[in-house]
Structure formats: C-alpha cells, structure tokens
Design a protein that fits this description.
The chain is mostly helical and 213 residues long. The protein is 72% helix and 6% strand. It is built from 8 helices and 2 strands, in the order αββααααααα. Strands 1-2 form a two-stranded antiparallel ribbon. The N and C termini lie far apart (52 Å).
C-alpha cells in the first residue's frame, strides 16, 4: 500500500480552502493591477479558481513530468532532490495564491515587497538546488549543449547556482525601491541569467569537444 505523504494531504486541504474561499468573496473582484498597484481590471470571483489550483497543478505536474522524462533514470538517482524542489516550488505557489487572495480583499495594498520576497526567495532557492538538479527535459537550464553533455549540464548549473542566488538577492532588495523597478529588475535578471547560461554552456561544450578531438 502506498504511503500517504503529509504534504500531499496538506496541499489538498489548502486547495480545498482556496476553492471554498472563492464563494466568500464579492461577485466581482480586482484581478489585475498596473505597475503602480492601481486596479485596471475587475472580473468574476470564479476566475480565482485558476489561482486556487496552481499549487496542486505544480505539485502533481512535476510528478507527471518526472515519470515521462526520457532522463527518468537520472532523476530517480536524485529523486529526493527533485522531490524537495517539487515540494518547495509548490509551497511557493501556495504563498503566491494566498497573496492574490489577500490582494482581492485589500485591493489598494502595495504588494511590491511581498512579490519581491516571493520571486527573490524562488531564485535563491533554485540557485542553491541548481548544482544538484539531474539532467532532464523539464527542469533546469536546457540549452542544446547542456542536453548534449552531462559535463556541460553540471558545469552550467554550477555557475547558474551562483547567478540565481545573486539575482534573488537583487530582486528582494528592489522591493525597497519604487514598484516600477520590480518589473525592470525581474525581467533584467531573468534575461541576464539565461544569457550567461546560454553563452557559458556553448563555451564549455566547445572546449569539451575540442579536447576530445
């Protein structure tokens, strides 16, 4: 008999609470804000059903991709690490969903710092786990060169671990500045992290193939 994990029960309970919570909200709720946290669109409270199921979809979606990934053997060799990331990302999605619910109740609240904390914490957490992520098709830095070489995968994720942690700290610090800066910093660090990983993985692959030749 399969052992029921505590987090499985927890995430179902949280989802149930989120779903039931929708019916206690006004029929029309704010569903979108501009960069200054001014409401620019209202919608039906039932739109929040999508938000309610995000944590559950993240948790079981990553379980599904683990089972169908062509590199499943590699994932299973580090299954505990993968499951820790899956649980941790699902927990972040719970916090994000909770944040959305709070914003519908207090729509004029400035959510910049909370968002910065959530995104920054996500980057820092991913940065710490990045060097331990086994090669797979759904999680991590997937460039043509990381997917072609185990060595390039490891080297790229080791470097990305550092860049992601630095990016996470920058995102959190940006929460103390104007809300407009958040989106600039967020887009900027994502672009820079991906650019560094892309170029670095190519350089490492070129060096590796040159040594082989």
């Amino acid at each position: 008999m399969k052992k029921i994990k505590i987090f499985d029960v927890f995430i179902w309970i949280i989802t149930f609470v989120f779903v039931v919570g929708v019916f206690f909200l006004p029929k029309m709720v704010p569903v979108h804000w501009d960069v200054n946290w001014n409401i620019d669109r209202y919608g039906s409270r039932y739109e929040l059903f999508i938000v309610a199921f995000i944590p559950l979809l993240t948790y079981y979606g990553m379980l599904f991709t683990k089972r169908i990934d062509p590199h499943r053997k590699g994932i299973l060799s580090r299954e505990k690490t993968y499951d820790l990331i899956r649980t941790w990302l699902s927990l972040l999605m719970i916090l994000f969903a909770g944040f959305i619910y709070v914003m519908t109740i207090k729509p004029h609240m400035n959510g910049t710092f909370i968002l910065c904390f959530l995104f920054g914490f996500m980057f820092i957490g991913l940065g710490n786990y990045m060097p331990k992520i086994p090669k797979n098709y759904f999680l991590g830095i997937r460039t043509p060169w990381t997917m072609a070489s185990e060595y390039v995968w490891k080297k790229t994720h080791l470097l990305s671990g550092y860049t992601f942690v630095i990016s996470g700290v920058l995102i959190i610090l940006s929460g103390f500045i104007a809300s407009k800066v958040l989106f600039i910093v967020l887009l900027g660090v994502i672009f820079i992290d991906m650019f560094i990983a892309y170029v670095y993985s190519y350089k490492v692959y070129q060096k590796e193939t040159k040594n082989i030749d």
